[in-house]
UniProtKB/TrEMBL annotation:
InterPro entries: COMM, COMMD4/6/7/8. Residues 134-185 form the COMM domain. This is COMM domain-containing protein. It comes from the Eukaryota.
Length: 192
């Protein structure tokens, strides 16, 4: 089954496993976790102490708490990236097995912060200005006796948030794979 919050794809298996773990936490505590995660994403102020208390009061181990946070973070950020409304997100979470009280609690908080979340995600995304082309160079790495020689492409892009360049090093295989995936994504966007 395809879900809008996953970009019209299947939900990852690890998220399904975390929904089961999240269901063990009360809906009130899930709301507290959601508020902390959103604060962490939007303002950069994640209170680990409060998150640890939620886990200990729900008799979850620290690894379960961390995994639940990762699952909820994935749900929130992907829903915002894919511009999913709160009603649709609630229905999709329930289809994945999350209790109604939990999905409603998540979606009410998500609806209040959706605009701020989308603005933050947009400002921190990696983009190129339309009048700028990427700087790139290909370096050849000499092979040792056990390896073939390979080329590495270095691409420098600037983030919209800081304007600082980010250098990405890709082998020829990874560069071809990236190009193929970008072309596939472009074709999907053109269909919409």
């Amino acid at each position: 089954m395809r879900f809008k919050f996953c970009g019209e794809a299947d939900a990852p298996d690890w998220v399904l496993a975390e929904i089961n773990t999240i269901s063990k936490i009360s809906s009130v505590r899930v709301k507290l976790v959601i508020v902390q995660i959103l604060n962490g994403i939007i303002d950069g102020s994640l209170d680990y102490e409060k998150l640890t208390k939620v886990g200990s009061s729900s008799s979850l181990g620290s690894s379960d708490v961390e995994a639940s946070i990762a699952g909820l973070h994935f749900i929130l950020t992907n829903a915002a990236k894919n511009d999913v409304d709160d009603t649709t997100l609630a229905k999709e979470l329930q289809q994945l097995g999350m209790p109604k009280e939990h999905s409603d609690s998540i979606c009410r908080t998500y609806a209040k912060e959706k605009d701020r979340l989308q603005k933050k995600l947009l400002s921190s995304s990696l983009k190129m200005a339309s009048d700028q082309s990427p700087e790139w160079a290909v370096d050849y790495i000499l092979a040792n006796q056990n390896q073939e020689s390979s080329a590495v492409a270095h691409v420098a892009l600037k983030t919209t948030e800081t304007g600082q360049p980010i250098t990405v090093a890709l082998t020829e295989e990874k560069l071809k794979l990236l190009l193929h995936e970008l072309k596939t994504a472009r074709a999907l966007m053109d269909e919409v």
